Amino acid sequence: MGRIAQFKLPDLGEGLTEGEILQWMVKPGDEVTLNQLIVEVETAKAAVEVPSPYAGVVTQIHFAAGETVDVGAVIISFDTDPTAGPLDPVATAPVTDPHPEVGDMVPSPPKAAGGEGALIGEVGPTGRTATLVGYGPKSVVAKRRARSDSGGTAAPLLVAAPPPPPSTAARVSAAAVGQAAAQSAGAVPVLAKPPVRKLAKDLGVNLGSVVATGRNGTVTRADVEAASDAQDAVPGAFATAPAAAAYDPETRERRIPVKGVRKMTAQAMVGSAFSAPHVTEFITLDMTPSMELLTRLKAMRELQGVKLTPLLLVAKALLLAVKRSPEINSTYTDDEIVVKDYVNLGIAAATPRGLLVPNIKDADQLSLVDLARALQVLTETAREGRTSPADMARGTITITSVGMFGVDSGTPILNPGESAILCFGAVRPTPWVLDAGDGTQSIAIRQVTQLSLSFDHRNVDGQLGSQFLSDIARVLADPSMALVWS
Asked: Do the strands 441-456 and 420-424 form a parallel or antiparallel pair, or are they unpaired?
């Protein structure tokens, strides 16, 4: 290997073909150690922090934050022997872009000095390059944004956040101005986690103008909130530049790019809806005994500090029902039905990146307390945007909770590879007919909810689906059944 080592975007899990650069943690000239985190990439399944496979000095960053890059494209170059003297300028100089635009940060990969048109570190037509995760990425270039017709040189390779407008710059702190100017010049990348970026977008705060106080110059949630407060006090001081082509005033339409989680979710849902014949059944039940049990559990000293919710009891009831109907926890293929002797329980979670379905591995082996802790960790990790591809892999059955939105029920679509998904609706005080068992009846206000179960009718017939849903309802209506079935 020569002095210049080029790192290609690896397959970050399960055959993904592209990823979006969220943020760079290094810049040209930085010295990098082996396995140091250098870039955060958002794939269709998760935001992943990628470590460096090389030690050395960063010579070039090939794609900026916000760019979508195909797996196998060179994203960063390193000088692996910086003590050997100056590099050959031919080998390190970026190729001039004949039609650049300000903010178009995607120059062509550098040329090798030893051959016209050859790329440094290029793999032969029959070779395969080992990547961080997996093998055999295709040799491609990243998707480019549309260019303007203006001439000039390619813009810097880092996030270029515009400085505040001249009319308001005097009212912005000197630190913010200096940082914004450095970023605009390509000297400093904007470091911020996806949830912080979303918060900034929601508050209308330009990340490039925020004074970062986090570790290694990372913009924190508190930094964004402080900038938002300053923006309210000084209108326009931190205003975010309007997104290109986001809104057309003539048509009064907004256009949102379909990529990342939203793109993968759409493809998976279409594939599931048109490959598996869905059947959905509903049941309404009196959940008062479970809600009373939850109140007693919260008062127990042994369970202090553990988050206990109705979803926990629904999850436990589902796991008990799977024991009685194991065929529900299966996958249908053209050749066979695969029944899983383990339950990786998926929980649909709304996150800053979209709807994700991480799962609790071997949930059927957990006690109620351990299940509660696992649910808490799963939801917190998802909301912070830290769910990994491994957290979402190999799910076997899923729960989606719509009650938090005040919705009573729904007809959920199966996760690909699964045969059932349970929808848990809102728990509402509702008039309910009580049967005393001696032929007398009365009406009382009870805590009532509705469950719906969608299942794959190729391998789950009506009897199996109905029995499974009924068993879940029986446990929730009478939690003592858990002692009988466990």
From this structure: antiparallel
Contact 162, 184 (CB under 8 A): yes
Judge whether residue 93 has pLDDT over 70: no
Q: Is the pLDDT of residue 251 over 50?
A: yes
Phi, psi of 125 (to 5 degrees): -65, -25
Q: Using CB atoms within 10 A of its CB, is residue 188 exposed (0-12), middle (13-18) or buried (19+)?
A: buried
The share of the chain scoring above pLDDT 70, in percent, equals 71
Q: Which residue in 62, 99, 278, 457 is the catalytic one?
A: 457
**Residue 47 near residue 22 (C-beta atoms within 8 A):** yes
Q: What is the mean pLDDT of residues 277-289?
A: 97
User: Rounded CA gap, 31 and 52, in Å?
Assistant: 11
Identify the CA nearest to 452 among candidates 474, 479, 423, 425.
Answer: 423
pLDDT in tens, 194-248: 777 767 766 667 776 677 777 767 788 777 777 765 544 333 333 333 333 477 8
Closest CA relative to residue 414, chosen from 463, 363, 464, 458: 458
Is the pLDDT at 127 greater than 50? The verdict is: no
- Phi, psi for residue 386 in degrees, rounded to 5: -110, 15
* DSSP line for 302-332: GGTTS---HHHHHHHHHHHHHHH-GGGSEEE
The two most distant CA atoms of the chain are separated, in Å, by 96
Region class of 265: left (phi > 0), else alpha (psi between -120 and 50), else beta: alpha
Q: How many CB atoms lie within 10 A of CB 239?
A: 16
- Tell me the CA distances in angstroms from 254 to 146, 202, 244, 458, one per residue in order: 18, 16, 11, 40
Contact in structure between 307 and 369 (CB atoms under 8 Å): no
Confirm whether 278 is a catalytic residue.
Answer: no
- The sign one gets for the Cα dihedral 152, 158, 159, 162 is negative
* 44 within 8 A of 260, measured Cβ to Cβ: yes
Phi then psi for 353, rounded to 5 degrees?
Answer: -95, 0
Q: Is 102 left (phi over 0), alpha (psi -120 to 50) or beta?
A: beta
Residue 157: the pLDDT is 36
Tokens of residue 69, six digits: 């890059």
The token pair that represents 243 in the structure block: 């997104």
Q: What is the pLDDT of residue 1?
A: 52
Average pLDDT over residues 68-76: 91
Q: Is the model's pLDDT at 284 over the cut of 70? A: yes
Distance CA(390)–CA(394), nearest Å, equals: 8
pLDDT digits (tens, 9 = 90+) for 298-346: 999 888 889 999 999 999 999 999 999 999 999 999 889 999 999 999 9
